[in-house]
Amino acid sequence: MAVKQNFKIRAGIRILLTNGLIILAMLLIVFSISCQATPPTEGEVASTSTEINISGFAFAPASVTVTVGTTVTWTNLDSVAHTVASETDLFNSGNLARNATFSYSFADRGTFSYFCAIHPYMKGEVRVE
Ligand SMILES: [Cu+2]
Q1: Quick one: which of 12, 14, 40, 73 has the most CB atoms within 10 Å?
Q2: For residue 57, how far is its CA from the centre of ligand 1 (angstroms)?
Q3: Alpha-carbon distance 37 to 126, whole Å?
Q4: What is the C-alpha to C-alpha distance for residues 104 and 96, in angstroms, rounded to an integer?
Q5: pLDDT tens per residue, the chain (129 residues)?
Q6: Cβ atoms 63, 72 nearer than 8 A
Q7: How far is the centre of ligand 1, averaged over its atoms, from the C-alpha of 96 (Å)?
Q8: Centroid of ligand 1 to alpha carbon of 119 (angstroms)
């Protein structure tokens, strides 16, 4: 009788230990996954930025693809003034003298075309994904 009970207790302890190890392993997996991928919560934007040069009467690169929330900064490297003007009036830098910069943060997805108001043949686009 005592031996049988002892056996039952041993079996119980073994089950508890096995289950405990499984639960511990699952907790470790969940913990490591949550540590690896922490997507930005709502209202929070990933802090990314992209640079576009204005050089030789052209935007370089003329087309960029960025993620939502990215701040794009244009720098005029020419000795003449240029502007960065959205086709849809979303943004407008006004005249940018040599080495002047203009930044805009893209909060929505879409393709945003822009041009230079002084030299309208200068065109560019920002694709926000
Ligand atoms: Cu221009």
Answers
A1: 73
A2: 6
A3: 27
A4: 14
A5: 455 565 565 665 465 556 655 544 554 444 454 545 444 455 554 569 999 999 999 999 999 999 999 999 999 999 999 999 999 999 999 999 999 999 999 999 999 999 999 999 999 999 999
A6: no
A7: 9
A8: 4
Rounded to the nearest angstrom, the distance between the alpha carbon of 117 and the centre of ligand 1 is: 7
Taking the whole predicted model, whether its pTM rises above 0.85 is answered as no
Distance 51 CA to ligand 1 centre (A): 17
The 10 Å CB-count burial string (b at 16+, else e) for 60-82 is eeeebebebbbebebbbebeebb
Query: What is the rounded CA–CA span in Å between residue 89 and residue 14?
Result: 71
